[in-house]
Amino acid sequence: MNRRTSRTAEALTALAAVLLATLPPAQHATAAPRQTATYRNPVTAGVVDTFPDPAMIRGKDGYWYAYGTQNPVFQTTGETGERMLPILKSADMMHWTYAGQVFTPETQPTWHGGSRLWAPDIRYTNGHYNLFYSVPDKDTVGVATAPTPTGPWTDQGAVLPDNSGCATGDIDQAQFTDVGGQPYLYWGSYDTICVAKMNGDRTRIEGPATEVAQGRRMEGGFVVRRDGYYYLFYSDAGCCDGAFSGYQVKVGRATSPTGPFTDDQGVDLMAATSKGGVVVSANGDRWIGPGHNSLQTDLSGQDWLVYHAVPADDPDLDLVPGIDRTLSRRPMLIDRLDWIDGWPVVRAGAGPSTGAQPAPVTTWDIGSTFNEGSLSGWRPQGSGTTAWATATEQDAGGYVTHSSSDTDPAYLVSSSAATAQVRAEADLRVTSATGGAGLLLAYTNASNYVVAWLDRDRNALVTDVHVHGVGLGEQVTALPPGFQWGAWRNVAAELRGRQLTVEVSADRLHDAVATQQRTLPAAAAHAGKVGVAARGTGAAADNVSAVKLYRPVTRRVADPQPGKLLSAYSDEFDGSALSSDWTWVRGPAAGAATGDGALSWPTQNAELNLANNTASVLTRDAPAGDFTVETKLHLTSGPANQQAGLVLYGSDDRYFKLVHAVLPVSHTSKTTHVTEFAKEGARPTTTPPTAVAYGPMWGGPAAETLWMRLSYHYDRYGNEHEVRAATSTDGAHWTWTGVWSLPKEQTLRIGLVSLNTAGATVRFDYVHTYGG
């Protein structure tokens, strides 16, 4: 793993961040060719030292804002304290500046009891911003409101009642609004995620909590709706243990916001097993423990996963006064999120990025924020051509209004044409009692255009298509009762081929309150100008943009495939005794025996964990070079805390382990079965690096019969062992999880274990080792 970094490059990146993030978005409607930009993770480099649990929103002023967990974000400048829910600001999602914090020690509400504040979630709600945050010392969720993304913030108290009704830690919340306008809150940490309806102003939950997902160390839920499915993103395993953080993002989907959610293998997220649906995991490069995500969409319609990860070359922060543990360094990353066969995955499965990557599209081909107070580049068309004007307000900055009382449509159209395959969007509102505001695209003239109206008279999203002066019929989709017409609403329209998709949302976070699709005739699906439309007084528009529609990635990166079977390093266990190729560490284990083509081995009351190294390990030589080792095992469950499976063993304190483990579920009397992929080794930040640490991550679903693989690679640049794990419940379909790395201090041997708690019998059918 080559983790060398250039301090000069980092300094230049930091300088560019300060300069670019303070520049306002371009103002005029232009069609200049867009330069191919790139970015590098972490996007917060040179701005803050760490930014855990990031949430992001595009403000109504056209900037992006990010919010993070309370942390010591300025240690490298000599600041020893923390910022309470720090805020960053950017014009392009790549270059950021510090923009303040939600609370200070002086303004923090007393009901928090001095708690640190975690895991913010930001939403635009009926003309203001709701910032949800976790209060771990009170085991609850709070909410603060503000007129702008940077405040001033007014605390509204706890969102959850004293007894939330959820068997979980009551933190790690995310708000979601369904089609039709019903708001929900998802929350939960270690080890259950719940959902409940919210009141109209999104400050309290209402009604019972429903458990929708359960798993070992499951937390950080975030829900979006796409193509008729509700996708519940979450993280599992440990978030915050430096180089031993096993965090990763997974996902399940449902046809209802209250579930049942299932993973990509059809396993219910409430099932007593670990889950598949891996969205992003450590890939053996620079980043460890990627997790606690939110989502953001660029102007082309491409989705981006927003998350944190631990840098392998600098995983820990300095100790913070008043905190008795080392905090992990967790800067903010963004990476392209692809939707392949109905499932989201980062970079088609390639995992977190390290080098230069194509940047999010955050500048338009045609568009304006109107912050300069100018209509340059826009042409009035239709009725009331002199009624268009610019105005300003605190949150949105500049915007455009139409004040004519004429009931015929008026248009404000770009001087240049956009491409045929386009994503157009605008923030719209209607402050008068009647009339409408619309988004215009594929406009040739007053006889040829497509428009998506927010029609106040009908309380509806209405699309209308005209070709050669002939209307092809309106399509009407009801907006929610109580729709707040005086608040900004984002209307986004994507034209791909002849398919038009329109969404109405508050904040572009995949929680549209109304969606509509229709197929256009070929004569209407063409390149054309964009703009906004008005009918009557009170129509206003802002942040108008048109960009070439993104090109989706449709094929995943190929998973590792085993090479040729290496018979000299494999065993079918078809003899009456173990082959002499095997040797025992603390053995032979009582009851372990071959017969009937398998190795039978009762679980031991023994451990292989940190200083407790009492379990037997059965080992044999591994081949030179890269290889994959596979076994098929049967674990008949007894009481909790049994485990059995594969190891790549260097010593009791240097190994990789993949086991079927039976573990307790926090806050309940339940147990769950997980595929646990772990490493044990020296913690690299100690001097000398002698302290031993253990880090697990969870693989795919477990079953009584389970196939397992460990794929080994030697990284000669970093002089490291790299191991990736996979499991299967049928021997054919594999769930690959992340990569663990350890320094190449010792030669690894292939091994088996059956340990932790007596009471179960494990059967190993074979050990197969493959080249490559």
Protein model, in words:
The chain folds into three domains: 7-28 and 48-358, Tachylectin-2, Chain A (5 Propeller); 366-548, Exo-inulinase, domain 1 (Jelly Rolls, Sandwich), CATH 2.60.120.560; 567-771, Jelly Rolls (Sandwich). Mean pLDDT is 94; it is low at 1-24. The chain is mainly β. The protein starts with 6 loop residues before the first helix and ends with a strand. It is 2% helix and 47% strand.
Compact overview of the structure:
This protein is mainly β and about 775 residues long.
Low-confidence stretches: 1-24
**What is the overall shape?**
elongated
Average pLDDT score: 94
Report the C-alpha radius of gyration, rounded.
28 Å
What's the architecture of the largest domain in CATH terms? Answer: 5 Propeller
- Beta-strand content estimate: over 45%
How many separate structural domains? 3
Report the end-to-end length measured between terminal Cα atoms.
Answer: 18 Å
Largest sheet: 8 strands, antiparallel
Topology, element by element:
Blueprint: H1 7-21, E1 38-39, E2 55-58, E3 64-67, E4 84-90, E5 96-103, E6 118-125, E7 128-135, E8 140-146, E9 154-158, E10 174-177, E11 183-187, E12 192-198, E13 205-214, E14 219-226, E15 229-236, E16 248-254, E17 278-280, E18 287-297, E19 303-311, E20 332-340, E21 343-346, E22 357-358, E23 366-368, E24 378-382, E25 388-393, E26 397-402, E27 410-418, E28 422-430, E29 436-445, E30 448-455, E31 460-467, E32 470-471, E33 475-478, E34 489-496, E35 499-505, E36 514-519, E37 528-535, E38 539-548, E39 583-585, E40 593-595, E41 598-602, E42 608-609, E43 612-613, E44 617-621, E45 627-635, E46 643-651, E47 654-664, E48 671-682, E49 692-698, E50 705-715, E51 720-728, E52 735-743, E53 749-755, E54 761-771
Antiparallel strand pairs: 1-22, 2-3, 3-4, 4-5, 6-7, 7-8, 8-9, 10-11, 11-12, 12-13, 14-15, 15-16, 16-17, 18-19, 19-20, 20-21, 23-38, 24-27, 25-26, 26-38, 27-37, 28-34, 28-38, 29-30, 29-37, 30-31, 31-32, 31-33, 34-35, 35-36, 39-44, 40-41, 41-54, 42-43, 44-53, 45-50, 45-54, 46-47, 46-53, 47-48, ...
